[in-house]
User: Which sequence fits this backbone?
């Protein structure tokens, strides 16, 4: 079997030749496509630093074999901002001091986007905390993260309403 | 990670033929398999990727009232199906209490059933482990074994099965459709996993190359929906495996339990259906005395396998808690922390 796969990454189709079936989506993004915004923390599915949206769903890219996802659509932290303008989740993370060292932040933000799109947490901080529990923050910025997710969610639903109107 | 050949079959028949070759392993999401391969715990020579076979991820509500669920469905998608969650709330609660949102989005139901133990000695290739390497011994016996089995263990292995999903599936009588070179057969979920005995490396009744196609729940399982809970004690609030967990379902008529379903998780190498406890509850009032007797019956044969005698009493208390919460009624909406034993009890008593 040819080890050539096609992925749509942040809206751009990319065909990639793989010389090794062991490459994960995380290593493909970081080591071969120079998309180093997605972070490698534990590399074992325990910390969430590598969270991306895969076909619209948040997953740990460290445990996903790239070959198995031929044809998939991928959104990484690099695809989130609108030009120079921060995405509402990025802006809310800044406004609420939702990080310190910043290493877990891309994963936190992609996970927050997944959570908001799943639409099951509502405005309940407890449900946001539970929904974000797959993302560890060793600086302990959890309080700011929860506030940022809640505010970003409000702003995104307000923006969506205004677009409809 | 070792190198491997990657095979992507388009049909179940092709997959089974490919997996018949020794050294093969099925790849579903890989959330457990890739982790184990990264640690060198498993070293399959061929991965048979079953993610591109169509039709294995459907939820079908059957005319007889049962439900058939494709084994490639993702954990999150079953929990999020409103009809399924309404009819089988304890199963949805168990799914949502497991792992993280990211893992639930990826992990399949079939993979959940066949996930490997989280015993640290199984994961550490420098340790002796009869389950990983038959005949090498069991370093867990004299090691860090606070979290190990209290039921059904043997001198060869004291590991537990970590699945949450399997616990209510065992309680509510799920069956599996399994396909192999000799055709299709059905196996009760309760019979899927083997107890370790002298051969802990034989973890399930699946023959090499057999594939779980679907799981089924009988119509009767939905009759417990008004009184069905899954309760799980973890060492942190979220995103952790069970120390002990319990699934409980009750049918109540005229202030009496007419039928009960009960299973424990985190206590054995398989989900542990507690049939003696179920019988003890039939005809009894749903009160603390009945639940206490049921918990005694469920743990009658338990014995510590190491520094874990506390788990026997803990399992009794989690069973009582699960029964108490089930009797109080399935909540309209799942709690913010699914399966948490720390939710307030009806009547405001902090401890049940």
Assistant:
């Amino acid at each position: 079997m040819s080890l050539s796969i096609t992925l749509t990454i942040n809206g751009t189709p990319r065909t990639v030749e793989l010389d090794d079936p062991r490459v994960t989506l995380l290593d493909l993004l970081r080591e071969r496509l120079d998309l180093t915004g997605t972070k490698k923390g534990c590399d074992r599915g325990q910390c969430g630093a590598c969270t991306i949206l895969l076909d619209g769903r948040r997953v740990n890219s460290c445990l996903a074999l790239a070959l198995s996802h031929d044809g998939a659509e991928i959104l990484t932290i690099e695809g989130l901002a609108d030009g120079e303008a921060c995405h509402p989740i990025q802006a809310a993370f800044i406004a609420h001091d939702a990080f310190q060292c910043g290493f877990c932040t891309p994963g936190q933000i992609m996970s927050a986007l997944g959570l908001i799109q799943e639409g099951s947490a509502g405005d309940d901080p407890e449900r946001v905390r539970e929904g974000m529990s797959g993302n560890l923050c060793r600086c302990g910025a959890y309080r700011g993260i929860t506030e940022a997710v809640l505010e970003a969610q409000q702003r995104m639903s307000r923006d969506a309403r205004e677009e409809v109107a | 990670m070792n190198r491997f050949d990657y095979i992507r079959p388009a049909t179940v028949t092709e997959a089974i033929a490919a997996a018949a070759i020794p050294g093969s392993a099925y790849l579903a999401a890989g959330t457990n398999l890739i982790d184990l391969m990264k640690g060198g715990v498993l070293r399959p020579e061929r991965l048979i990727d079953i993610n591109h076979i169509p039709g294995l991820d459907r939820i079908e509500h059957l005319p007889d009232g049962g439900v058939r669920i494709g084994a490639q469905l993702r954990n999150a998608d079953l929990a999020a199906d409103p009809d399924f969650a309404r009819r089988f709330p304890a199963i949805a609660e168990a799914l949502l209490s497991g792992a993280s949102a990211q893992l639930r989005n990826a992990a399949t139901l079939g993979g959940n059933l066949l996930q490997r133990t989280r015993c640290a000695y199984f994961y550490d290739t420098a340790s002796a482990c009869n389950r990983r390497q038959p005949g090498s011994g069991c370093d867990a016996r004299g090691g860090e074994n606070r979290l190990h089995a209290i039921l059904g263990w043997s001198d060869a292995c004291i590991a537990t099965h970590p699945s949450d999903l399997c616990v209510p599936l065992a309680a509510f009588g799920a069956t599996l459709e399994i396909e192999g070179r000799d055709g299709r057969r059905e196996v009760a979920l309760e019979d899927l996993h083997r107890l370790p005995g002298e051969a802990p490396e034989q973890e399930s009744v699946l023959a090499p190359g057999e594939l779980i196609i679907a799981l089924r729940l009988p119509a009767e399982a939905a009759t417990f929906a008004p009184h069905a809970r899954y309760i799980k004690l973890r060492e942190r609030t979220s995103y952790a495996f069970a120390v002990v967990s319990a699934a409980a379902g009750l049918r109540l008529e005229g202030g009496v339990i007419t039928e009960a379903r009960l299973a424990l998780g985190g206590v054995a190498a398989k989900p542990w259906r507690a049939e003696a406890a179920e019988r003890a509850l039939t005809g009894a009032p749903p009160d603390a005395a009945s639940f206490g007797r049921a918990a005694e019956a469920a743990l009658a044969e338990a014995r510590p396998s190491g520094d874990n005698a506390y788990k026997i009493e803990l399992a009794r208390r989690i069973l009582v808690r699960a029964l108490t919460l089930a009797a109080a009624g399935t909540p309209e909406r799942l709690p913010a922390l699914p399966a948490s034993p720390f939710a307030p009890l009806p009547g405001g008593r902090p401890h049940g």
User: Anything to note?
Assistant: The radius of gyration of chain B is 20 Å.
